[in-house]
């Protein structure tokens, strides 16, 4: 683990968050076995998430198939056998986050899975956990598990950084073996070389580093998707009410509950960047605003400090508490500040649900749209009859996995756009939001690895990111 003094020293000069990781020069050794964090079919709903995972050691000749399904109990019909591929690629895991969606998959409460598999008859059926991760091409191997020297490939070389192009690949592992035809650029190939170079150096000289790249496919892409919708909805309103030739003078607002979440903070930063979707921002101008909603802290003083922190990190225009959002009197006082102003509360993004959405609904303009991408309160979204009849408010779901599945090329565009925003210092992550878990490949026992991942699953308040240290 990186010492606190080294973190503090490197943080001053680093553009990205690579200083959080214990980065060392890595050798190109070939593993005899690969360690995977896997989960089985959850028979008892009361079983805690962290108790439904285990370490599974697989041969470097075993390739886990990618078989998408919506059924958490679906099982691959064939027993796995060593691959016969004459050429294989060895991917070395750099890092992977532990996302809420990963936990939901383990619990059997998500909308997408990979079919469970079995290597030996005595095994219980399992899937490798995880949907997001960052890898590096370590070597090209022959059937004997030997490195093919000076191997030439049209799209890949040793050292290239790749990410999963599709979901359900199983990212929680120290290495990954694939037949050579399984990495590539089209929809039949699940891994993609990151064309926007990822900074893997300890110095962190570019914005798009390990943490940024490892979390871009889910949180980053969700935030970018919302920024696209915000610009699109504002543009449509202007076209409908003013005509394209007029100069826009309307301020458009988007509410975001869970204002301290990574999606909300990145969303607001992207909104205030020079990023323009389909050229919409050139027409809208500097009139896109965000309102972040947070839960109160323990004391008013702590809440005030927290608000200042959120405003600084997210660049959001306004921060309000859930009390102001949900209390009808306080909510009216807040909205009175906008009287006689040319404003339109055109959109909201929701990952909380329940009374938080009801509070937001009262403050939205006619024809506004509410996008739900999570439900942290475990309470549903209940829309009022008034909002439907008199305000024509539309409630929609947003699931980045489905969006990428329907448009194969979109993920590539999103990652490149995010890389550009990180490199230009227009968006950034907060180191304080993350807890680094170091997986030491050479020294950690299976029990130690399992314990670390279980602690990450149980972690509250911070977002766990697993860094795979291949040299200790």
UniProtKB/TrEMBL annotation:
Tell me which Gene Ontology terms the entry assigns under biological process: fatty acid metabolic process
Q: Does the keyword NADP apply?
A: yes
Q: What is its main location?
A: mitochondrion
* Compartment(s) of residence: Mitochondrion
Give UniProt keywords alphabetically: Mitochondrion, NADP, Oxidoreductase, Transit peptide
> Mind telling me which GO cellular component terms the entry cites?
mitochondrion
Q: Does the keyword Oxidoreductase apply?
A: yes
Question: Which terms in the Gene Ontology molecular function aspect does this entry carry?
Answer: oxidoreductase activity
Domain of life according to the entry: Eukaryota
Q: Which family would the database say this protein is a member of?
A: Belongs to the zinc-containing alcohol dehydrogenase family. Quinone oxidoreductase subfamily.
Designated name of the protein: Trans-2-enoyl-CoA reductase, mitochondrial
Q: What is the lineage of its organism?
A: Eukaryota, Fungi, Dikarya, Ascomycota, Saccharomycotina
């Amino acid at each position: 683990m990186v010492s606190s003094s080294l973190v503090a020293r490197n943080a001053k000069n680093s553009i990205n968050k690579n200083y959080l990781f214990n980065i060392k020069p890595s050798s190109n050794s070939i593993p005899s076995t690969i360690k995977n964090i896997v989960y089985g079919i959850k028979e008892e709903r009361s079983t805690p998430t962290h108790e439904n995972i285990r370490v599974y050691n697989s041969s470097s000749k075993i390739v886990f198939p990618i078989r998408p399904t919506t059924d958490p109990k679906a099982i691959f019909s064939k027993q796995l056998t060593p691959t016969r591929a004459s050429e294989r690629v060895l991917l070395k895991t750099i890092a992977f986050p532990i996302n809420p969606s990963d936990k939901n998959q383990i619990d059997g409460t998500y909308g997408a899975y990979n079919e469970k598999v079995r290597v030996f008859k005595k095994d219980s059926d399992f899937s490798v956990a995880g949907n997001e991760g960052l890898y590096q091409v370590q070597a090209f191997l022959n059937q004997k598990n030997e490195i093919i020297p000076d191997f030439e490939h049209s799209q890949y070389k040793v050292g290239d950084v790749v990410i999963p192009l599709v979901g359900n690949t199983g990212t929680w592992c120290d290495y990954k073996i694939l037949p050579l035809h399984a990495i590539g650029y089209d929809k039949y190939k699940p891994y993609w070389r990151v064309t926007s170079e990822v900074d893997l150096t300890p110095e962190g000289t570019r914005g798009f580093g390990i943490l940024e790249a490892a979390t871009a496919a889910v949180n980053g892409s969700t935030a970018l998707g919302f920024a696209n919708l915000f610009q699109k909805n504002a543009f449509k309103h202007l076209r409908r009410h003013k005509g394209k030739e007029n100069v826009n003078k309307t301020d458009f607002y988007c509410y975001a509950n869970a204002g301290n979440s990574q999606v909300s903070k990145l969303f607001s930063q992207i909104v205030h960047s020079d990023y323009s979707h389909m050229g919409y921002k050139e027409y809208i101008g500097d009139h896109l605003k965000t309102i972040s909603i947070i839960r109160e802290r323990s004391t008013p003083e702590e809440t005030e400090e927290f608000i200042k922190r959120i405003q600084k990190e997210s660049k959001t225009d306004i921060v309000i508490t859930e009390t102001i959002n949900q209390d009808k009197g306080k909510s009216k006082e807040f909205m009175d500040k906008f009287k006689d102003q040319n404003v339109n509360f055109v959109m909201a993004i929701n990952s909380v649900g329940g009374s938080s959405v009801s509070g937001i609904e009262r403050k939205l303009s006619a024809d506004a749209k509410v996008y739900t991408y999570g439900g942290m309160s475990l309470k549903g979204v209940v829309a009022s009859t008034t909002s439907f009849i008199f305000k024509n408010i539309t409630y929609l779901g947003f699931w980045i996995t489905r969006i990428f599945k329907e448009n194969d090329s979109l993920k590539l565009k999103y990652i490149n756009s995010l890389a550009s925003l990180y490199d230009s210092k227009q968006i950034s992550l907060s180191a304080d939001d993350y807890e680094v878990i170091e997986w030491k490949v050479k020294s950690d026992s299976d029990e130690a690895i399992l314990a670390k991942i279980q602690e990450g699953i149980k972690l509250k308040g911070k977002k766990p990111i697993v860094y795979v240290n291949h040299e200790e």
